[in-house]
Amino acid sequence: MTREPETSPGSLRTDPEQVRVIRHIFGTVTGTYDLLNHVLSLRRDVAWRRKTVSEMRFFRTHRLLDVATGTCDLAIEAAQKHPHIRVVGTDLVGEMMERGRAKIRRAGLSSRIQLIQGDALGLPFADGRFDAAAVAFGIRNMPDREAALREMARVVVPGGLVLVLEMTLPRSRIFRPLYEIYLNRILPGVARLFSPNPGAYHYLARSIMSFPSPAAFAGLMRGAGLERVEVHPLTLGITSLHTGRKP
Ligand SMILES: C[S@@+](CC[C@H](N)C(=O)[O-])C[C@H]1O[C@@H](n2cnc3c(N)ncnc32)[C@H](O)[C@@H]1O
């Protein structure tokens, strides 16, 4: 009997100009990315990833795909919380993953976490290879988000979970304007002190403000064929965890 290969060649489906922008932004912030994440979110990012990992269920392949893994925090958190699973992390930008690779080594997880460079819109994996596919703070950078969701759904088994953790705008009419001031004024100001590319944090503010509301994003997940879609607002709704199940 022939068995379908575990990986497939994948392809670069993201528009080349967008790939250039992504590589420029994330290739230049790599050294300060983790620190700024923790500072700018007052370390809430750690709790948000922890919540994401606690929603994961492993029942057939015992494998997780971490899409846009960056410096691999979600992959590491998942491998630590679920000691029986293996994790594959994938990202467009090699520099981000190199930093992640060093963290994986330090955590003693090199035998359980594998990193493969690839495009979320043309994932280099055959269908149904993972129990869950997750993306943390990555889908905002992808112009065709429904295509990214369809790819994640394709590579999970039936009954598997797709999880999307993303920064969103709070719904509160009092808190939201304050948060927008934080995004547009304070965040780029702090980034200027630490980051070699503070422009990346103006990009961050713009990309958060133009991201769909959690309800609209849940509609996108249903459009990608996922069912039982749920939204969990975190920290007053400045981040939301969206989950959906492949039928
Ligand atoms: C804000 S970082 C998030 C990294 C990590 N998931 C975390 O939780 O910190 C966004 C990542 O998305 C990656 N990315 C953006 N577009 C991508 C695409 N089309 N395919 C794969 N990775 C992509 C970037 O290279 C970057 O590493």
Structure, explained:
With about 250 residues, the chain is of the alpha/beta class. It has a single domain, classed as Rossmann fold (3-Layer(aba) Sandwich), CATH 3.40.50.150. It has 8 helices and 7 strands. Strands 3-2-1-4-5-7-6 form a 7-stranded mixed beta sheet, with helices on both faces. Strand 6 and strand 7 form a beta hairpin. Helix 1 crosses helix 4. The chain is globular and about 45 Å long. It binds S-adenosylmethionine. S-adenosylmethionine binds next to helix 1 and helix 3.
Task: Write a compact overview of the structure shown.
The chain contains 8 helices and 7 strands; from the N terminus they run ααβαβαββαβαααββ. It is 45% helix and 20% strand. The protein has a 7-stranded mixed beta sheet, sandwiched between helices.
